[in-house]
Amino acid sequence: MNNDRLTLTNRPENLKLLLDFVQKWAKNRSLPANKLTSLESAAGEIFQHLVKHAYAPGEPGAIAVELEQKGPRLRLMFEDDALPNFLPKGRSTSQVAEAAHDAPHLSGLQHLAESLIYYRTADRKNRLVVFLN
């Protein structure tokens, strides 16, 4: 398995660090430009959502990002320590289209992702896993 992890604070200016990490990771694996573009878009969209909507203004937090390549598939995992609010209460992750209605800024993920999985870990962290082809 080829994976790497980066942990950032939940500050908007860290988007540049995240994108630099994604680009370096993709370059080390000789990913084609179209896969890099999809990966950058998904990572940027999720990170910005977490910074703007998962945390209260001024609330400190940590966002971990893990990238993994499994054959032709890319796995992008975000883990944060915010209160659980990615999907509205009572909805499953299979209802991504409905969730996009409540989080329209994430609607681009529907077009980029092969699949999305959201769950809460035993240590009370939110984890969003996105698979890209």
Overall description:
With 133 residues, the chain is α+β, with helices and mostly antiparallel strands. The protein has one domain (2-132): Histidine kinase-like ATPase, C-terminal domain (Heat Shock Protein 90, 2-Layer Sandwich). It is built from four helices and five strands, in the order E-H-H-E-E-H-H-E-E. The protein has helices at residues 15-28, 33-54, 96-102, 109-112; strands at residues 2-9, 62-70, 73-80, 115-120, 126-132. The chain has a five-stranded antiparallel beta sheet, with helices on one face. Strand 2 and strand 3 (73-80) form a beta hairpin. Helix 1 packs antiparallel against helix 2. The longest helix has 22 residues, at 33-54. The chain is globular, with a radius of gyration of 14 Å. The two termini are 16 Å apart.
Shape, per Cα inertia axes: globular
Separation of termini?
16 Å
Q: Assign the CATH class.
A: Alpha Beta
Would you give the CATH topology? Heat Shock Protein 90
**What is the CATH-assigned architecture?**
2-Layer Sandwich
CATH superfamily, please?
Answer: Histidine kinase-like ATPase, C-terminal domain
Strand content: 25-35%
Q: How many beta-strand segments?
A: 5
Domain count, please report it.
1
Give, in spatial order, the strands making up the sheet with the most strands. Answer: 1-2-3-5-4
Q: Average pLDDT, to the nearest integer?
A: 84
Order of helices and strands: EHHEEHHEE
Report helical residue fraction: 25-40%
SS-based structural class?
A: alpha+beta
